[in-house]
């Protein structure tokens, strides 16, 4: 399987009393969940969502079906807990992520999304948002009532239209595509993309070759911009000799207090791409 490296960071921000985001960053599974539901609810929901993905981490042969099952398990578990624990009865969570798996000898990414956490891809210097927000303001944008830049300041910008643990069936969006050497992914909660516009996110995402440094830079920038929500980011690099075409300025590496996550195990000296 193709080799990937990654970094991650999460912070409660400058306004919220606690961090209700959760993340899982361990190849081949990368997930961000942004919980909601007051008191312990939000943190419990996002934690339960991420735990459902822990269960598929060590599968010998991970499939797209396993990812769909993890999403369903997360939804079922959150609802079951909400039913029996009044203190978390209104909880729910977003979940967005990418999972690397092999099928008939070829590698693929499966990206998925429920809610308004986001997945971006940076390749050849161009930033693309892969996921589509499940939010009221996104529906207004699609319908042409507001411009995309107005969504970030709209009074209803926090209204999410699909969540894990909500009423009705969970309906994730999925995208499947082969990995490419030099591509970099960002998975983030809305505490990042609510504070920084895409141009800034793209610049910061391209600013360091080290995914862990990049993760810290992004969180720091969101805090500098106000930090009005919990901020969670995962940066995933597909290793490869092809240049991503990015300018890579020197980065202040004097950041202490957090240990970088371990690198992905690479089964071969070089990546293989389908
Ligand atoms: Mg949030």
Structure summary:
The protein has 274 residues and is α+β, with helices and mostly antiparallel strands. The chain has helices spanning 41-54, 64-84, 136-143, 148-151, 190-193, 198-205, 211-224, and strands at residues 4-11, 21-26, 29-36, 92-93, 95-103, 106-114, 118-123, 126-129, 173-177, 184-188, 231-238.
Write the layout of secondary structure elements.
Elements lengths: L3 E8 L9 E6 L2 E8 L4 H14 L9 H21 L7 E2 L1 E9 L2 E9 L3 E6 L2 E4 L6 H8 L4 H4 L21 E5 L6 E5 L1 H4 L4 H8 L5 H14 L6 E8 L36
Antiparallel strand pairs: 1-11, 2-3, 3-4, 3-5, 5-6, 6-9, 7-8, 7-10, 10-11
Helix pairs in contact: 1-2
The site of magnesium ion has 6 residues, from helix 5.
Summarize the structure in words.
- With 274 residues, the chain is α+β, with helices and mostly antiparallel strands.
- The protein has helices spanning 41-54, 64-84, 136-143, 148-151, 190-193, 198-205, 211-224, and strands at 4-11, 21-26, 29-36, 92-93, 95-103, 106-114, 118-123, 126-129, 173-177, 184-188, 231-238.
- It is 27% helix and 26% strand.
- The strands form 2 sheets. Strands 2, 3, 4, 5, 6 and 9 form a 6-stranded antiparallel beta sheet that branches.
- Strand 7 (118-123) and strand 8 form a beta hairpin.
- The radius of gyration is 18 Å and the shape is globular.
- The chain starts with a strand and ends in a 36-residue tail after the last strand.
- Bound molecules: magnesium ion.
